[in-house]
Design a protein that fits this description.
By secondary structure, this protein is α/β, with parallel strands linked by helices. Helix content is about 60%, strand content about 10%. It has three domains: about 130 residues, P-loop containing nucleotide triphosphate hydrolases (Rossmann fold), CATH 3.40.50.300; about 60 residues, Helicase, Ruva Protein, domain 3; about 150 residues, Zinc Finger, Delta Prime, domain 3. The mean pLDDT is about 85.
Length: about 375
């Protein structure tokens, strides 16, 4: 069976559920979990080799055997997945699975993005079955609203009433993952017990922060102009890069550049009177919907109508932490950091730390300049 999709949490939970069911059903001690994450074709081929070995190794004491090929990262269309060696390895595995005498052997594969056009996927679809856990895309303009609607209804079903701030914080922490949102609602509801109203403080106390939310944390610290928090988060992000090859120093820098661009936009919207800082996201979204498209550039990168309203909502109060001149200077510093990271070969941690210190520091008694 193949469990796949962009909802990482849902895929993981479903894979674990199936594997544990099979463990209990089959009994014995010969079950195997194989880490199928791979950063290159060599690691992918090694994982496939281990899977073939597990399939062909009979349980030591007889009986059944469950195998979990966990977190397979080479079923999509990235460079590793598209390499000739991996493509051939998956084709060989597909042939093996098609003719395999399953008996008491069970196999569940969990994966993220998966190319449905490939022979391997079609083979599993015919022989073992597939389940897809699709998340919403963070590029979808309405994913925040859909998330809040889902969470509000889930709270209502459990007899709870969340505040607008609580919903906003929950969706920001979890991201565009519907299944995980539902599970977090259940956890928060258990935490508040008989309390009918769920507050933002309740969400903060128990809600997890997934990878997407963590990726925003550094930019949020910059928006809050909180230097100690920014340096702490930077250290955590740089440390985590040892274990997550999808992260990079350049990626962190681009996140900061995007945040400063958003702060500049927010400050101009406040100055021109087109938008006001409000505490309620629904009220803010109503303001955005009343904006005249003719007043803004057609390039959606530079228009408030082309960005996620929730991201702009978060930036509005933060824009007050800086003067316009400070934000322009921050953009210059970040672009210079980009040049230093790419061209100079300087130590990445030092470059990013120095840039954050220059942007976020301010003299005692300083007030933002206009």
């Amino acid at each position: 069976m193949l469990i796949f999709g962009e909802d990482d949490f849902g895929v993981l939970q479903r894979g674990r559920e199936i594997f544990r069911e099979w463990e209990q059903e089959l009994g014995g001690m010969d079950h195997e979990t194989i880490d199928a994450g791979a950063a290159n074709s060599g690691e992918a081929l090694n994982a496939l080799s281990r899977l073939r070995e597990a399939l062909n190794t009979l349980p030591f004491f007889g009986g059944g055997k469950a195998i979990w090929f966990k977190g397979c990262s080479f079923l999509g269309d990235d460079r590793t997945s598209a390499s000739a060696a991996v493509t051939e390895g998956l084709a060989d595995l597909a042939a093996l699975l098609k003719d395999f005498k399953w008996g008491e052997v069970r196999l569940v594969i969990t994966a993220g993005k998966t190319d449905k056009r490939k022979t391997f996927f079609k083979t599993l679809q015919k022989t073992g079955g597939v389940e897809e856990f699709s998340g919403w895309s963070s590029s979808d303009k309405d994913w925040v609203e859909r998330g809040e609607m889902l969470a509000r209804q889930a709270f209502k079903d459990l007899g709870k009433s969340p505040t607008d701030d609580a919903l906003a914080q929950l969706v920001q922490s979890v991201g565009p993952l519907p299944r995980q949102l539902q599970m977090e609602v259940e956890k928060i509801s258990l935490y508040v017990g008989g309390q009918p109203v769920v507050s933002a403080q309740d969400v903060a106390a128990v809600c997890i922060r997934n990878k997407q939310a963590q990726a925003f944390a550094l930019a949020e610290a910059l928006g809050d102009r909180d230097l100690p928090a920014a340096l702490k988060i930077l250290d955590e992000e740089l440390w985590s890069m040892q274990f997550d090859r999808k992260k990079s120093e350049i990626g962190l820098l681009y996140g900061l550049i995007t945040k400063v661009r958003m702060l500049l936009m927010a400050q101009e919207l406040i100055r021109s009177g087109r938008l006001k800082v409000v505490h309620s996201y629904p009220s803010f979204k109503a303001q955005v919907e009343r904006l005249n498209p003719e007043d803004f550039p057609r390039d959606r990168r530079f228009s408030p109508l082309g960005v996620n309203p929730f991201v702009l909502f978060k930036a509005m109060p933060q824009a007050r932490n800086y003067g316009m001149g400070e934000l322009v200077r921050a953009m210059e510093l970040l672009l210079e950091s980009n040049r230093r990271l790419v061209a100079s070969g300087q130590e990445e941690r030092m470059v990013l730390q120095q840039t954050l210190v220059e942007i976020l520091s301010r003299p005692v008694g300083h007030t933002p300049s206009a």
